Amino acid sequence: MALSRGLRCCQRVFSWIPVLIITSVVLWSYYAYVFELCLFTLTNTLEKVVYLLVFHVCFVMFSWTYWKSIFTPAASPCKKFQLSYSDKQRYEMEERPDAQKQILVEIAKKLPIFTRAQSGAIRFCDRCQVLKPDRCHHCSVCETCVLKMDHHCPWVNNCVGFSNYKFFLLFLSYSMLYCVFIAATVFQYFLKFWVGDLPNRPAKFHVLFLMFVALMFFVSLMFLFGYHCWLVAKNRSTLEAFSAPVFVNGPDRNGFNVGIRKNLQQVFGEDRRLWFIPVFTSQGNGHYFPLKNRSSESQNPLLANEDMWEESDDGSEEGSLVEDQDPSVTIEMEE
């Protein structure tokens, strides 16, 4: 037990190494650009002011989005998807597997669950003891189920999912902008140092290295950002791109694709003025997503409130989302 705790503690410590690497590179780039280039190399005052002003705007937005990507907690399923104490007791006391599955089926009838496991069974996490909402997956690193999980990113030491996917996309975009601005403004001085038009000073090393690092990061970020733009346009997560979500009628990679405009609004919200600001504007609560070519959902608001699947006071079930539930499906235990 003590050894296991020690290993988990070491794992948590080492998981911050990629973040420290990125932070160190960014802090060095700040020093190299602001001091070695702008203050010690540039002679034109207007050029200094413009470079420093734009650079700090890019730096602040990059830092803000990176911070939000790292420290925004991954969203987990709400209590409605967890087994209640009585259901858990009833489930554990039941020895017959078929009866256990039926208990979980009864619980699932009250929830807006449309995706299935590969076998066609309702997805259930035996570690978290929750029925998984659509697009939810268990992260073995975070040791929890994450709503609309995209992937676990070591560079932010966090799961990228419903709660911070917008921040992650903005982090990629502002990282690219940061690298492009540095490369564009450093290029002429890079050439001057390279051909010897400027004297050999400590700034030479910083300027040359700034150019190489900015271009290297820009190229890698460009491919990653382009890939995620394609995912957003198709309304897929990274996990869904590799393994298509399974519905009652079988796998469908475009099951959540409701058109580019609505796909963008699901991630960034309807107010375009807030699209490029790292504040949470994603639609819904991460437990339910509209499906393509499903007429029964056209009558429900986009990513409706949790209360739509609660039982009303008179015992009737609210919302038509649960009407499509197949009562004959079984439950598959999966992590």
UniProtKB/TrEMBL annotation:
<keyword id="KW-0012">Acyltransferase</keyword>
<dbReference type="GO" id="GO:0019706">
    <property type="term" value="F:protein-cysteine S-palmitoyltransferase activity"/>
</dbReference>
<keyword id="KW-1133">Transmembrane helix</keyword>
<keyword id="KW-0812">Transmembrane</keyword>
<comment type="similarity">
    <text>Belongs to the DHHC palmitoyltransferase family.</text>
</comment>
<feature type="region of interest" description="Disordered">
    <location>
        <begin position="291"/>
        <end position="335"/>
    </location>
</feature>
<keyword id="KW-0472">Membrane</keyword>
<keyword id="KW-0808">Transferase</keyword>
<dbReference type="GO" id="GO:0000139">
    <property type="term" value="C:Golgi membrane"/>
</dbReference>
<protein>
    <recommendedName>
        <fullName>Palmitoyltransferase</fullName>
        <ecNumber>2.3.1.225</ecNumber>
    </recommendedName>
</protein>
<dbReference type="GO" id="GO:0008270">
    <property type="term" value="F:zinc ion binding"/>
</dbReference>
<dbReference type="Pfam" id="PF01529">
    <property type="entry name" value="DHHC"/>
</dbReference>
<dbReference type="InterPro" id="IPR001594">
    <property type="entry name" value="Palmitoyltrfase_DHHC"/>
</dbReference>
<dbReference type="InterPro" id="IPR039859">
    <property type="entry name" value="PFA4/ZDH16/20/ERF2-like"/>
</dbReference>
<feature type="domain" description="Palmitoyltransferase DHHC">
    <location>
        <begin position="122"/>
        <end position="242"/>
    </location>
</feature>
<feature type="transmembrane region" description="Helical">
    <location>
        <begin position="49"/>
        <end position="67"/>
    </location>
</feature>
<feature type="transmembrane region" description="Helical">
    <location>
        <begin position="203"/>
        <end position="227"/>
    </location>
</feature>
<feature type="compositionally biased region" description="Acidic residues">
    <location>
        <begin position="307"/>
        <end position="335"/>
    </location>
</feature>
<feature type="transmembrane region" description="Helical">
    <location>
        <begin position="167"/>
        <end position="191"/>
    </location>
</feature>
<feature type="transmembrane region" description="Helical">
    <location>
        <begin position="12"/>
        <end position="33"/>
    </location>
</feature>
